[in-house]
Design goal:
alpha+beta; GROEL, domain 1; GROEL, domain 2; GroEL; seven-stranded mixed beta sheet
Length: about 550
């Protein structure tokens, strides 16, 4: 056997990037993603218009929405999208901040790589700096009382800034605070908030000012029979997951009917069963029925005769929210129902919104599920208001569960950068340079805020650092007047969790991308994206 026999480990035509090339490409891809959404940061941030192949348009300045809608192919860039998604799931806000930070960290890391500093050392320095940042934020954070409605409204106001007009925002702020407080549940561990209990229902038409909070639930269904009452006051509500239909026979049973009398008897028996069901519902005092399954035509007629309002084929998620909002029990067998299973609402009514009939269940006594009905002149406006409300709800939930806040406007980032620089000086070895690079990256947030507001970023940063050196922890950029002011007094307030989560996610992804020194892609990628195992798109 010849000694010079070639050894094939990878297929012919494969692509591979090793060492610095791999790092450069990955860092470049991540930086491009960060640069793309950088201009959307802050109240003066710009919007993006995303157009898909069908011509559908989304207009937004919400970081996670932009990244989800973009068709990102490069594997390192996809990791940046994951940062935004994690931030969205954990807190609901701060997605742009997290992605910009990750991009900046990688940009600074690139300079260190040029100075022949090993990626592992940079990663270690970043890790230590991120821990220090969390510690500093925790130290300067302010504890808030969850009952302090005024403070909660300030948090929502900050989250909603830059989205919609000021007059409308005041109304939206109150709606959001009330909604979150309604669904908050006190437990031994503290306050728990399940954001899913706040239903956001969108209807085009009217203006954003027509948005309203319904202490109860809206259901996209109309009453099943035109003879039923349109409005029911002091509603006693039965929520049932079984169909209101005559009992079906077993699947393999045959019924033979030979004479007209037998057919008549059969139909009468079905009617009797349905009449009994309705009698049973009436006997426990129910005057509204929400059914997850179907309601037989004859049963509809009987319910209408008794003046009972009914909806059928209600979504399971709505059935569960109804039970939470009205205190009803979800019943699966009509024969076992009793008065204790009923829920209560001050009003159940059918109303037409934007040409579609909907059922409103309002004025529940102690609703653990509520609905915000979002209105707006066009679909794009309604969608963007919904995104803004989701961010604000996430912020509020984070504050109520964690009870800690920081000011905004770039103040916490500058304070963290200042403390990390001090900390870096105490480190031996080259990690010191990585920690300093981390501090520089933190400053990118206030710099971007200033740039997006059309201010001079260098002047702003110099003045900002000077104020922090004088011990003004909450000094930040007033982007409207281009001055340095106390952000706490200016009511620019954000949850601590938004900042800590953003730093955590950004540093972890930056470290992960830094540690990749070999990118191997399959050579035979077919054009239709149905790639073989191990293939990497976008290389």
């Amino acid at each position: 056997m010849a000694d010079n026999q070639p050894i094939f480990i990878l297929p012919e035509g494969y692509k591979r990037q090793i060492g610095k090339d791999a790092q450069r490409t990955n860092i470049m891809a991540a930086k491009i993603v960060a640069e793309t959404i950088r201009t959307t940061l802050g109240p003066k941030g710009m919007d993006k218009m995303l157009v898909d192949t069908l011509g559908d348009v989304v207009i937004t300045n919400d970081g996670v929405t932009i990244l989800k809608e973009m068709e990102i192919e490069h594997p390192a860039a996809k990791m940046m999208v994951e940062i935004a998604e994690t931030q969205e799931e954990e807190v609901g806000d701060g997605t742009t901040t997290a992605v910009i930070l990750a991009g900046e960290l990688l940009k600074r890391a690139e300079d260190l790589l040029d100075q022949e500093i090993h990626p592992t050392i940079i990663a270690h320095g970043f890790e230590m700096a991120a821990d220090k940042a969390a510690e500093v934020l925790d130290k300067i954070a302010i504890k808030v009382d969850p009952e302090d409605t005024e403070m909660l409204e300030k948090i929502v106001k900050t989250a909603m800034t830059g989205k919609g007009s000021v007059a409308i925002r005041e109304k939206l702020n109150q709606i959001i605070v009330t909604a979150v407080k309604e669904v908050a549940e006190k437990t031994e561990e503290g306050i728990l908030i399940d954001i899913d209990n706040i239903k956001l229902e969108k209807k085009t038409g009217g203006g954003v000012g027509d948005t309203e909070l319904i202490k109860g639930i809206t259901i996209d269904k109309e009453r099943v029979h035109s003879e039923m009452p349109k409005v029911v006051k002091d509603a006693k509500i039965l929520v049932i997951e079984a169909p209101l239909e005559a009992k079906e026979t077993d699947s393999d049973t045959q019924i033979r009917i030979n004479t007209p009398e037998q057919l008549k008897a059969f139909i009468e028996e079905e009617e009797r069963q349905l009449r009994e069901m309705v009698e049973k519902i009436k006997s426990i005092g129910a005057n509204v029925v929400f059914c997850q399954k179907g309601i037989d035509d004859i049963a509809q007629h009987f319910l209408a005769k008794e003046g009972i309002y009914a909806c059928r084929r209600v979504k399971r998620s709505d059935i569960e929210k109804l039970a939470k909002a009205t205190g009803a029990k979800i019943v699966s067998n009509i024969e076992d129902i009793s008065e204790n299973d009923l829920g209560f609402a001050g009003l159940v009514e059918e109303k037409k919104i934007a040409g579609e009939a909907m059922t409103f269940v309002r004025n529940c006594k102690n609703p653990k599920a509520v609905t915000i009905l979002i209105r707006g002149g066009t679909e794009h406006v309604v969608d963007e208001v919904e995104r803004a409300i989701q961010d604000a709800i996430g912020d509020l939930a984070a504050v109520l569960e964690n009870s800690k806040i920081v000011a905004g406007g770039g103040a916490p980032e500058i304070e963290v950068a200042r403390e990390i620089r001090k900390f870096a000086a105490s480190l031996g070895g080259r990690e010191q340079l990585a920690a300093q690079a981390f501090a520089d990256a933190m400053e990118s947030i206030p710099r971007t805020l200033a740039e997006n507001a059309g201010l001079d970023p260098i002047d702003m940063l110099v003045n900002l650092k000077a104020a922090h050196e004088e011990g003004k922890i909450w000094a930040g950029i007033d982007i409207h007047n281009g001055k340095i002011i106390d952000m706490l007094e200016a009511d620019v307030i954000e949850p601590l969790k938004v900042k800590t989560q953003a730093i955590k996610s950004a540093s972890e992804v930056a470290i992960m991308i830094l540690r990749i020194d070999d990118v191997i892609a399959a050579g035979k990628l077919s054009k239709d994206n149905s790639q073989p195992q191990g293939g990497m798109p976008g290389m």
